[in-house]
Amino acid sequence: KDIPGSVVRSSTIPEELGRIGYLLADKTGTLTQNVMVFKRLYVGSGSYTIENRGQISRLLKQEYAKPTLARYESQESLATSALPFGRKRKIVKITEALRVTETIKALALCHNVTPIVEQSTSASFDTSTKYDDEYHSTSDTPRTSVTSLNTTVGSDVLELLSATAISYQASSPDEIAIVDWTERIGLTLVHRSLKSMTLKLNSTEQLFDYEILQLFPFTPETKRMGIIVRDENTNEIIFYLKGADTVMQNIVQYNDWLQEESSNMAREGLRTLVIAKKLLTQEKYQEFEQKITKARLQTINRSRYVREVIETLECDMELLGVTGVEDKLQVDVRQTLESLHNSGIKIWMLTGDKLETATCIAKSSKLIRRNDDIYIMKQVATREECLQELNIFKRKLDACLVITGDALQICLSFYEKDLMESIIESPSVVVCRCSPTQKATVTDLLKKYRNKKIRVCAIGDGGNDVSMIQSAHVGIGIVGKEGKQASLAADFSINQFSYLTRLLFIHGRDSYKRTASLSQFIIHRGLLFSVMQTIFCSVFYFATTPIFPAYLVVGYITIFTMLPIFSLVLDKDVPADIALLYPELYKELAKGRSLSLKTFSLWVLISVYQGSAIMYGAFVLFDDDFIHIVSITFTALILTELLMVALTIRTWHILMVIGEFLSFTCYILSIVIFQNYFDIRFLESWSFIWRVVTITVISCLPLYILKYVQTQFKPPIHEKLKQYSTLK
Q1: 406 annotated to a ligand binding site
Q2: Annotated binding residue at 242?
Q3: From CA 588, how far away is CA 462, in angstroms rounded?
Q4: DSSP state letter for 16
Q5: How many Å apart are CA 669 and CA 509, to the nearest integer?
Q6: Per CATH, is 7-31+330-496 categorized as 3.40.50.1000?
Q7: Alpha carbons 343 and 236: distance in angstroms, whole number
Q8: 444 is in an annotated binding site
Q9: What is the pTM of this model?
Q10: What is the pLDDT of residues 419-430, one digit of tens each?
Q11: Are 178 and 38 in contact (CB under 8 A)?
Q12: Which residues contact 664 (CB under 8 A, 6 or more apart)?
């Protein structure tokens, strides 16, 4: 109840939450909110932030104030490679306003965002009208007229359009943040269909229509997306492309600032995106269209053929700018990671972001703590380079490792065992530029080389984390902006990363402790009965004679002992507030001492001792009443089992008391009901009562004494904390 929205999708492994030693986490949407805020735009001539939004708006207004022909010639000067053969180019000075305008226009067009307009009027009109959902006003002043460069909207339609708010829908929060920013500075996406888009210049209410000719969606393999549009005013065909700087730097024309500026933004924790364009002639586009149509008709290796055709355009493109988008950290993520570190859990971050961005987020979120040494493994290509980097890292004791997915893949191909044995001891590991397949591979390798007593947990929020979540011992999905793919594929689903501490420290601890107690007590219950049966048979020369009637055996494992034993699932050794306040308590669970060969052997010895004490005690004290051996031993057996449950309980619950009382009451009622099997007069005699009590005390009192001595002279750490909290 204290974890809102939590869902348990696998009820067979809750105890595994109490033995987590490694936590593999995605970054975007897991450690961060996946709520993007546009922070910076760099266009080569200068950098623009949200603080100087007014300056960008003025530059945008200034450029669009030019006549259409002048603006078209200015755009031509930015793309000399796209000029038709034999056409003379007019030399025009490239102004700052032109650079900014072209970049903003590219950002407003190159995406998969759909605008959703909310109408503020109850008037009804034909929704099939072209401008039904393409207009909204960001100005508070009354609108008098709206003109398009190629279309005049009827006044009757304009009277009906009184939208006051617009929202955007897209699969990527980055794209929504960018399109929302272009709206704020003055260029708004007001309409989108499968074949067209419409932009509106807020300052003049002008509408600019673009025909969508081709759309190339983003994929994790290509790490970029593109679009080809036709400006319906100038008939100009433009190819826009945006993507990660690592792939775009080989596509754009030579420049001296892309890599440096991308690194600067990444060091600030911003997600970078490079935008480029290319002007296409009508002939060149028609040639491309024929090739792409032919490739899409292929039945074998269609994706490869399509990719090859698209790559013919992805060369020598004009670099427009670089955007920086901030992904805010989740609520209480720093405190959560600090608690997880203190609990002894080693945290790995597997992300597809740049090395600088991933490192910055790891530091700001305290995944890598201030005093931790950091070793950034260089890019390697040969076996010798791998060995050299690995030896350097081995000499850095307790250093956090930052490595790219490519370098990790190469090192694993040569020195898998040495690398894994080295990095599993690292307090934190950051793997950047990591693909979904690599995430699953890392998880499998960690399971292979880990300490077998601890478990590997993976947590993520997107479809690219599903393989990692399913490969781990315990998968936790976060319901976030990217949908419920990870949540549905995981064993446990939560809404925030900060809920992880309560899930592990409280529910994980309680589930593990309760499972250990319950399973071992069930073993003790069965073994205790078996020892008594063995001793009874040995007295009669190992004759196969049952000591108890069948109905008593069934009653023993059901109504006489079931409620007290299963009430152990309500037991807890540490209060919830103490478990959260002292994460160090979780370290003890990873050692597996609650359920091990040692504890199993101890319960076997207890069962043998108590079974022997009951049987031989009955033989000695009731030698004259041996005919009543069933009543004697079974009564002592029930009392012993109930007292052992009471001995095991660390925190009493009202249902535990009720379970003990009901079980003993059921046994008394069975004596009354089945009088043919019991001698009531004998059971009511004082001789029977004191002898049964004596046998029960002999079987249980030594264990109570040993527990008391242990608690006084060597109490567990959680007992010390409980006493300290009580005194405080």
Answers
A1: no
A2: yes
A3: 32
A4: G
A5: 38
A6: yes
A7: 61
A8: no
A9: 0.73
A10: 898 888 888 999
A11: yes
A12: 638, 642
- Any known ligand binding at 73? no
- Dihedral Cα 334, 330, 426, 421, nearest 10 deg: 160
Distance of alpha carbon 137 from alpha carbon 384, whole angstroms? 62
Residue closest to 209 by CA, chosen among 217, 200, 221, 220: 200
35-73+95-117+153-326 shares the fold of 7-31+330-496 = no
Q: Where are the domains of the chain?
A: 7-31+330-496, 35-73+95-117+153-326, 504-727
Element (H, E) at 323: strand 318-329
Q: Which residue is listed with tokens 């690194």?
A: 263
Asked if 638 and 667 touch (Cβ cutoff 8 Å), the reply is yes
The CATH number given to 35-73+95-117+153-326 is 3.40.1110
Q: How many CB atoms lie within 10 A of CB 709?
A: 10
The first and second tokens of residue 316, run together, are: 């020598």
Asked if residues 241 and 277 have their Cβ atoms less than 8 Å apart, the reply is yes
Q: Which of 488, 451, 357, 408 is nearest to 31 (CA)?
A: 357
pLDDT digit string, tens, across residues 10-69: 888 888 999 999 999 998 888 888 788 888 888 887 888 878 778 888 888 877 777 654
- Residue 100 CA to residue 73 CA, distance in Å, equals 16
Q: Rounded to whole angstroms, how far apart are CA atoms 146 and 533?
A: 96
Active-site amino acid positions: 26
Pairing of strands 224-231, 206-216: antiparallel
Between residues 400 and 483, the one the model is more confident about: 400
Per-residue CA distances from 536 to 544, 611, 612, 630 (Å): 10, 10, 10, 11
Q: Establish whether 650 is an annotated binding residue.
A: no
Determine how many CB atoms are found less than 10 A away from the CB of residue 449: 13
Please give the distance of CA 265 from its chain centroid, rounded to a whole number: 25
Q: Binding residue per annotation — 277?
A: no
Q: Is 264 annotated as a binding residue?
A: no
Locus of tokens 């379970």: 659
Query: Distance (Å, rounded) from C-alpha 689 to C-alpha 63?
Result: 103
Whether the Cβ atoms of residue 497 and residue 330 lie closer than 8 Å to each other: yes
pLDDT in tens, 668-702: 888 888 777 777 888 888 878 888 899 999 999 99
State the Cα torsion 435-438-442-444 to the nearest 10°. 130
Cα–Cα distances in angstroms (integers) from residue 6 to residues 201, 347, 503, in the given order: 45, 22, 9
**Is 26 annotated to bind ligand?**
yes
Q: Are 208 and 198 in contact (CB under 8 A)?
A: yes
Q: Is residue 271 marked as binding?
A: yes
Please state which of the ranges 207-211, 284-288, 396-400, 473-477 shows the lowest mean pLDDT: 396-400
CB 473 within 8 A of CB 447: yes
Q: Which of 419, 85, 142, 434 is nearest to 284 (CA)?
A: 85
Q: Which residue has the tokens 């947990």?
A: 457
